[in-house]
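Chain X:
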Amino acid sequence: MRGQKEVLQVPATLEDIKKSYGKISRVYATLEGRFEKGARRKGLELLAVKDGEVVLEIGIGTGFSLKEIASSVGEHGKAHGIDITPEMVKISKQRIEEAGLSDRVELYEGDAREMPYEDDKFDAVYMAATLELFDTPDIPRVLHEIKRVLKPEGRFVAVSLSKEGREGSRSLRFYERLHQRFPQYASCRPIYVEQSIRDAGYEILQQDELVIGSLLPMKIVVAAPI
C-alpha cells in the first residue's frame, strides 16, 4: 500500500484463526459483550441504520451488533451476517432467535474475500474488529469485495485497531509482540485503517477514535465508494 509504514504480516492461516476462534467462541461472547461494548456502540451510531435498509455485517462474532442491526432495519429491512467461524455463526443464530428477529436475518458461514452476494445489494456494510485479522495483501481484496456488494450510494463503516499516528505507542508495540508470538490467538494487529480504505477507492466521510481498556486505540471510519 502506497506510502505506508510497516504493518505486521499475519503468520497464522485463516484456517488456524477459524479453529482458534471456534475454541474460544463461548469466552469470546463474554469479551465481546463487555470489552468491545464502547466500540460497538460508537460504530453502530455512525452506521446509523435506517428502517427498511438492507445491511451486511462482516465478522459477526457472537451476534451482539447483528442483533442491533436487525432491530434497526425493521420489518421491511434485512440484516445479513457473514463469519468464517461456524461456532460464531451458531451462537449468533441463537442470539437472534432469542430476540425474535430470525425473520429479518440471514446468516452465512464464509470468507469475506469472496462473498456470495450479488453486486450493489447493500445499503450499508459494517465491519468491526475484523479487517485487521486479514493478512496485509488480503486487506485490499476484502475492501474491493465490500465495494462490489455495496450500492453506489451505500456506506461502509469500519471499526479497527489503528496504528495511524500511534507508531510509538508502547501498548501497540506490546500487542504486536503478542501477535508475533501467539498469532493464532492475538491474530489481529494494528493497521493503517484510513489509508487502506482510501487506497481501495473510497471517500472518507467521517472518522472517530476511542481507546479500549485504556490500551488499544480503535479508529472508526465512515466511507463511501467512489
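Chain Y:
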Amino acid sequence: MDSRQARILYHKNATAMAYVDVELRSGDRSIGSAFHIGDGVYVTARHVVENNKIVEVKATDPVSITAGEMFPSIPSGTIKEYESSLTEIMGHEPMFKHWPDALEIECGPFFPEDTRIDLAVFRASNVHPAAGVVDLGFHYDDWVYRYPWALSDAVILGYPPIPLTSSPHLVSARAEIHTFVQPWHSPHVHFILSATPRGGFSGGVALHEGGVALGVITSGLRTDNLASDLGFMAVLSVEPIHVLLKDTELTPTRQKENWKRMMQGCGRKRRSD
C-alpha cells in the first residue's frame, strides 16, 4: 500500500475515531480509543472501560458541514446565494470544519459473556451525522487463512498519549500483517502487526488495505520481562464484534447493508461458476 492509499484510508475514517478518557479504580487517569461503526455505536477494547469510570469520549478530527449549519442565524435565502456563488467559483459546494462536542453515552458499555474476549461496545446519542463510519470486515475466524493476509498492509488509528502534549491527538501508522494467531488467553483469531503497540492504541481500529476493519486493537503480546512497546501489536478479528452486536441488538444499519451486499456478491459468483 503506497502513501496515497494510506492517506485515503486515514481521511475516510479519521472522524470515526474518538478517545476514551477513563479514571481507574486507583484514581489514576488513562486513555484508550474507540471507533464508530454507524448509528452511534462505538467499538473499543474491554480493558479500556471495564470497571473504570468513563470521564469523556470525544472525537478530535473535525467533520465537514455546510454553510447553513455553520451559520444558522443567517437567512436561508442569503445562505443559498452565498453557497451558489462559491460553488461557481470553487467548482464544488463550500464546506466548513466543525469540531463535535464530547459524546453522550446512551447505553453500555456492553461486553461478551466470555471475559477472555477483550471487547466492548456502547452507543452514543449525539454523534454528528457527518461523522465517519468504519466498515467492518466479514472475515470470520473459520474463513481466515494465510494467503490473503500475510504481508498485506494495514493502517492503524488510535490515541496513544504523546509526551509533552496537553491533549489527545489522533495517531496513525502504516503496518504490515506478520501473521495471525489464536493466543492462549483468547478464543478468537488475533492478527499480529508490525506497528509499535503503544498504550492508548487499545480500542482503536486496524484497517486492512482493502478498506474494511481488520479488527480492534487490543494489546501488545509480550513476556513479563519486556516493556509493553517491545511486544507484538495484537488485533482482535471481527467475528466477536459481530457476535456482540447481534447479542446486544446494536448492529448498525450500515453493517447489515454491507452483509447483504457481500452475500449477494457471493450468490452471483456461485451462479457464474
